[in-house]
Amino acid sequence: RVVEIFGAGVAAAGRVRQDLVDRMLERGMLELTGASNLADAWKLFVTPDDVVGLKVNTLSGPGCSTRREVVEAVVAGLRLAGVKDSNIIIWDRFESHLRRTRYPIQQRPGGIRCYATDSPGVGSDLDVFYRANVIDWIPEQLKRDAERELAASYPNSHFSAIFTRHLTKQINLPVLKDHNIAGVTLCLKNVAFGICSNTERFHTTPINCDPMIAEVYAHPM
């Protein structure tokens, strides 16, 4: 099911109203689930024992990244379902991206944590990866020149250890973007390439992220 919620006046003059975001998310969750209250709606998706990851997208800087107000509204819903702050992790691929969009880095236990795959002590899971023979997607006339470089430079794409080891549930909080390589990007790319290392090789022409976005998303993990 898909629910689309509009809120007049939620964003104006570069500012976002938290109270309207909260009401919009509540309306959407109730419509999506048919629950009579917000707590019951969230309890259909998470339990107090879950460790919930909020996968944000901070690649494009403050003007086009997952809004903190949306994250705050989701956190409020998780709390209603009994999820402890210590079991909530806000995360992305790169710590520098989180910092420049004003997500405070916090790895210490005890409250809501916010960190990245490249944060100290995290890294990629070497046991979980997506493997693509990139050469298969290159036109025949380009293979001769590219084959040696590709074979040497393009290993597996390993999944973030946050995703594979730290979480029991994940909520995808992407940004709708006009991407000059992949076209429109939203939920699929935020997870598929957001959890993987070494995705730069998929952005070259004529690959243009196709079919890698779909294939990574179809990974059993």
Features:
single chain, 17% strand, 8 helices, globular, 221 residues, 10 strands, 33% helix, alpha/beta, two-stranded antiparallel ribbon, four-stranded parallel β-sheet
Structural category is alpha/beta
Numbering strands along the chain, what is their spatial order in the largest sheet? 5-4-3-8
Work out the number of β strands. 10
β-sheet strand percentage: 15-25%
Helical stretch tally: 8
Which helices and strands appear, and what pairs or packs with what?
Blueprint: E1 11-12, E2 15-16, H1 18-33, H2 38-43, E3 52-55, H3 68-80, E4 88-92, H4 95-100, E5 113-116, E6 124-130, H5 140-153, E7 157-160, H6 161-166, E8 169-172, E9 177-179, E10 183-185, H7 187-192, H8 212-217
Parallel strand pairs: 3-4, 3-8, 4-5
Antiparallel strand pairs: 1-2, 6-7, 9-10
Helix pairs in contact: 1-3
Characterization of the model:
By secondary structure, the chain is α/β, with parallel strands linked by helices. The chain is built from eight helices and ten strands. The radius of gyration is 19 Å and the shape is globular. It starts with 10 loop residues before the first strand and ends with a helix.
Q: What's this, in brief?
A:
The chain is of the alpha/beta class and 221 residues long.
